[in-house]
């Protein structure tokens, strides 16, 4: 179901303007294995090394960015679930991944493209896919930089965690958003 949505969106870029384009310049499409791996790995590294400097030290950023050093493994990771790409003039400027159907696995925006609503638009698209798949909640493990973006989208903090990348510890935040309304009677 999730893959069908992403494939249909990529196959018909002129389809529904509400789900296809944030504006006339940004095109939303599904990840293309192998072809998109190198540009998204570069975006991933740039976003981490540049944008998270106020939250993480140099060793933490380097360890985190190193995840993209093995391009084959990074490509394999991006082919899981649904990975959506926002591009401008044929160049990726943001991407996000839903894997499994109720978890935002990745969300990155290129330096120079922040504060334009791309992260919020990706979250909204992934939330719609999660709802379509029947998920009752949507969760993520967010960085200190991404946490406020998710909270503005209605996510709440569940726990603060620490993840290890080699010998380096990185703080992150587990956030969750209910997707189904709960009815109370009384």
Automatic annotation (TrEMBL):
Protein name: GNAT family N-acetyltransferase
Organism expressing this protein natively: Paraburkholderia sacchari
Record-linked Gene3D superfamilies: 3.40.630.30
CDD domains with a match to the protein in the record: NAT_SF (cd04301)
Residues annotated as domain N-acetyltransferase: 42-180
MF terms in GO: acyltransferase activity, transferring groups other than amino-acyl groups
Domain of life: Bacteria
PROSITE patterns (alphabetical): GNAT
């Amino acid at each position: 179901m999730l893959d069908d949505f992403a494939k249909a969106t990529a196959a018909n870029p002129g389809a529904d303007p509400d789900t296809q384009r944030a504006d006339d310049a940004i095109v939303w499409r599904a990840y293309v294995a192998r072809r998109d791996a190198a540009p998204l790995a570069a975006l991933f590294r740039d976003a981490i090394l540049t944008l998270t400097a106020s939250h993480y030290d140099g060793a933490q950023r380097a360890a985190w960015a190193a995840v993209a050093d093995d391009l084959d493994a990074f490509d394999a990771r991006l082919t899981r679930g649904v990975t959506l790409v926002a591009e401008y003039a044929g160049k990726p400027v943001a991407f996000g991944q839903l894997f499994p159907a109720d978890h935002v696995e990745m969300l990155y925006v290129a330096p120079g493209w922040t504060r334009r609503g791309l992260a919020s638009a990706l979250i909204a698209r992934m939330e719609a896919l999660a709802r379509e798949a029947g998920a009752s909640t949507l969760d993520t493990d967010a960085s200190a930089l991404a946490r406020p973006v998710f909270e503005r989208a209605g996510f709440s903090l569940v726990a603060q965690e620490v993840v290890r990348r080699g010998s380096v510890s990185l703080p992150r935040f587990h956030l969750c958003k209910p997707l189904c309304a709960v009815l109370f009677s009384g």
